Amino acid sequence: MRLKNLRLLADENISPVLLDYLLDKGCDVVSIEQAGLSGSSDEAVLEWAYQGSQE
After folding, report:
1. Residue spans of beta strands (DSSP E) within 1-55
2. Residues with Cβ < 8 Å from 41, sequence gap 6 or more?
3. What is the tally of structural domains in the chain?
4. Which residues in 4-25 are b (16+ Cβ under 10 Å) and which e?
5. If DSSP codes are grouped into helix, strand and coil, which group holds residue 46?
6. pLDDT, tens digit, 9 for 90 and up, residues 15-47
7. Which helix or strand (DSSP H or E) is residue 51 part of?
8. Residue 40 is part of which domain span?
């Protein structure tokens, strides 16, 4: 699998430097903050990720 085919939802503890690197490599990555899920429960995050994987 190539990074450009990989979709990631990055949790709050992931470094912004790593997110920028992945974006530069063409990875489809969204942070918890960008998704509007800061402080959300794990269940809410998983539901959001699952719904996004169905698109």
Report:
1. 7-10, 28-31
2. none
3. 1
4. eeeeebbeeeeeeeebeebeee
5. helix
6. 999 999 988 888 889 999 999 999 999 999 999
7. helix 42-53
8. 3-53
